[in-house]
C-alpha cells in the first residue's frame, strides 16, 4: 500500500498579493506584455514578465519561487536558533566569583545606539 506524500505549504496562513500589470498595446490580448508581482507583506516580491497568454504558468512559477524563498528563510531561522542554543550552552559554565570581584568590577556606561533614536517613517512606498 502506498501512502500519500504530504508537503507543508510555507505560504499557508499568509496573505499573498498577486498584481498583474498589462501594458497598453495595439497587439492582440494574448501577445500584450505583462508584468506579474507575487509577494507577502514586508518582503520583496517575485517578479515575472511575459505575454498575457502565459499568465497562468507565470503565476505558478512565481508562487513556487515565493514558496521556496519562504521555506529557505524558515530553514535559515531554524538553523540560527539551533546555533544560538549550542553557543548558549558553554556560556552557562559556573565560575568562582567572590563578592570582592563583584564590588571591584566597574560596569561601563551603556553605549548610545544611533539606531534607537526615532526615525522618520517612509510614506507612499509600495513593494509592487
Report on the architecture of this protein.
With 128 residues, the chain is α+β, with helices and mostly antiparallel strands. Helix content is 34%, strand content 16%. The protein contains two helices and three strands. It has helices at residues 55-91, 99-104, and strands at 16-22, 33-40, 46-51. Strands 1-2-3 form a three-stranded antiparallel β-sheet, with helices on one face. The longest helix has 37 residues, at 55-91. The chain is elongated, with a radius of gyration of 26 Å.
SS class: alpha+beta
Question: Which strand order do you get reading across the main beta sheet?
Answer: 1-2-3
Give the integer mean of the pLDDT values. Answer: 74
The number of helices is 2
**How many β strands by DSSP?**
3
Taken in chain order, the helices and strands follow as EEEHH
Q: C-alpha Rg, in Å?
A: 26 Å
The low-pLDDT segments are none
Main β sheet profile: 3 strands, antiparallel
Strand content: 15-25%
Given the C-alpha coordinates, what overall shape results?
elongated
Alpha-carbon distance between the two ends: 47 Å
Q: In which range does the helix fraction lie?
A: 25-40%
